[in-house]
Amino acid sequence: MAHEATATIGETLGAATGGEIATRIKSVAQVMFCNGCCCGRTDRGYPAVPVERIKAIWKAEKLNRGVQLTISGCLGPCDLANVAVIVTAETTTWLGLIEGDGDYDALVDWARRIRRGEGSTAIPDRLASRRFDRFASAKAIEPDEAVVK
Question: What is the mean pLDDT of the chain?
């Protein structure tokens, strides 16, 4: 019995868009909340991540139409739990040590403003002190002497 070759999803989408893939759904931003090995683990002494409350607000107010919400496993770095990442077309912003309703409410209000088309995607002032640089420059990393010969 002969099997017909079938196109993969990528091939089908590529053909439909002239060889480039593209999404039909484009949000202005995405916010990812870590809820992994440390973040939100009150049993380990870390502050709670109000996942169910945030998800309920996002759903009720249809905030995904402006800001995609993602609840993630471990994003690292665990020494700055609780971690959130905001991604926009302009930048990626890492936030750490998020705690309490005030911090989470500031992010919800930020998403509401974006959803209404008001203001910029800049992070709320309240969270400016929570911002950190996640990655080191490759030049800043010392080569492992055991690897270098």
Answer: 88
Q: How far apart are CA 64 and CA 82, in angstroms?
A: 22
Q: Where are the domains of the chain?
A: 29-133
| CATH class of the domain whose range is 29-133 | alpha beta
- Look up residue 71 and give its two tokens: 């609840």
- The per-residue pLDDT for 53 is 98
d(CA 50, CA 42): 11
* Pairing relationship of beta strands 131-132 and 29-34 according to DSSP bridges: unpaired
Length of the chain: 149
Handedness of CA 38, 44, 46, 51 (dihedral sign): positive
> pLDDT tens digits, residue range 62-75?
999 999 999 999 99
Q: CA 8, 11, 15, 20: dihedral to nearest 10 degrees? A: 140
Q: Judge contact between 95 and 130, C-beta under 8 A.
A: yes
Rounded distance between C-alpha atoms, residue 93 and residue 101, angstroms: 20
pLDDT of residue 127: 97
